[in-house]
């Protein structure tokens, strides 16, 4: 029942997404690839990326799910306002997010000044990487979960209450299981966003090998050719794509199982 | 919580005084429910019936008013007990089974979440299966809601609502979403289970049959106010105002089963459509074996309560005794009133209960009907439905 004309832009759209990645494959120096991938320059950023993206995703879940619940169950006016606020980091260039974080938590920042007094320095640490990733990734989770909550409505929760279930019981046994598909979708999106995060991290966390140099920063460094070849940038890109695809497929099959 | 005052024998189980205004819509009413009673709250769509239930269940707070259950205040000035602590259950027209849980787990949820619940998982599982048995779904515990029909889902929802052990169960149009084939079965099931568990209930409905079958008392709601209340028979058989009559909209003969027909208090026998006649005959037959399941009349004999229902427009009025052989109810009566009705002229005739016929103005004139005229009334048996009470 699809108008045939739609296939033309659809194909172009798909090509736009896929062909550059295919082009990347053509540039790969397959002979040198194993050595490049097993080098410290590749494995260290990969490990850091996975660890920080994992922690950020957990933070997104711990903070974002409650936020989504509050938005979904607010009056329309309050919900609209909160939703707009949550969306701001989503539409900002990540660089701006980095500047914002730096001006809050930086050494001379509003909050950073006081943290400095108690001996806490956030910028240019692995913690800063996690904060930057959480900052850019959480809106994806909040929006996905909030949408699922709103679609679900409060009817099941009200019935559960009339059966004598306490609010926390209702949340754990009714609300969460019912929004699980939305929750998984939001988790996938925010993990992917955290894994690919570059701009805010670069400004707020810097590019220190082993501490803040995640995969995107390693790729950027390699590509800029400070001593290394573009081959390495391509290889690292390939690695990041492979890891992302594997993780998305894993979560995707899990999600399909939940939905069925 | 303050301790509940001592309950006196005269105090009703549930007492409510509720006021709520939302734009043009206004509720202002008082309700009482005695222990063991089933009250039908009858009213047209938009009369505020569902809102009243939400106010009682604690899903909505009134502008002002009080709700008292067994002497303990649930709603009042500066007092609002949340729904989960009220002991008031709610069964709506949508069963709202939790879609991620199977039938058994839905009932187990109700058994396990209450503050006083002391059942472990294995016990809850057994009790839930018992409940499914009682609502006719034994062996379907593993079915997900998506695999059940509308009627089956409502059966599970009823089991779940009763399994929570509510002090009062609120039923909000529980049959409205079911097809005509299924509704009577679920209606009878609700009647049986409310009686078996001795659950006091308020059932909101716009269908007189629900009131007749399920309730022993009726309150009529119109524009947020109660305009009539009393026993089901008193309110519906002798509507005190045209609005209630229009709402009732049917002739209602509350009597007892006599063979495969319904006997009115004045001895008239109403034959009913074949399918219902078979049900009546079956219960009359079961009477001999199980007299305990029936109500005891003053005369000392055991009888089965039943009601015959038919539309006023199904009543044929003639001035001479009709000579038809087809199965129909024929009797003579006096015209006691002639008044304007919804679809023409309403002719009320003598008897207990009085029977209303609806005619066109032309036929009233043609028949020369006047107050005191003797007429012959006829209703085809196929136009009469019967309901066990």
Topology:
The complex is a heterodimer of chains A (about 260) and B (about 400).
Chain A: H1 7-27, H2 33-38, H3 40-72, H4 76-91, H5 94-105, H6 112-117, H7 126-152, H8 155-162, H9 167-178, H10 180-196, H11 199-204, H12 215-223, H13 230-259
Helix pairs in contact in A: 3-7, 3-10, 3-12, 4-7, 7-10, 8-9, 10-13, 12-13
Chain B: E1 14-22, E2 25-33, E3 38-42, H1 49-57, E4 64-69, E5 72-76, E6 79-80, E7 88-91, H2 103-113, H3 121-134, H4 150-163, E8 168-172, H5 183-197, E9 200-205, H6 208-214, E10 217-222, E11 225-231, H7 232-237, H8 242-248, E12 251-258, E13 261-263, E14 269-271, H9 274-289, E15 295-296, E16 302-303, E17 305-310, E18 316-318, E19 328-340, E20 345-349, E21 355-359, H10 361-367, E22 374-380, E23 385-388
Helix pairs in contact in B: 2-3, 2-4, 3-4, 4-5
Question: What's the short story on this structure?
Answer:
The complex is a heterodimer of chains A (260) and B (389). With 260 residues, chain A is mostly helical.
Total strand segments of chain B: 23
The amount of helix of chain B comes to: 25-40%
**Percent range for helical residues of chain A?**
over 70%
The level 1 CATH classification of the largest domain in chain B is Alpha Beta
- SS field, number of helical segments of chain A: 13
Number of strands of chain A: 0
Low-confidence stretches of chain A: none
- In total, how many domains does the architecture of chain B comprise? 3
Give the amount of beta strand of chain A, in percent: under 5%
CATH homologous superfamily name of the largest domain in chain B?
P-loop containing nucleotide triphosphate hydrolases
Please give the most extensive interface between any two protein chains, plus how many residues each contributes.
A-B, 18 and 27 residues
CATH architecture of chain A: Orthogonal Bundle
CATH topology of chain A: MetI-like fold
Class derived from helix and strand content of chain B: alpha+beta
Order of helices and strands of chain A: HHHHHHHHHHHHH
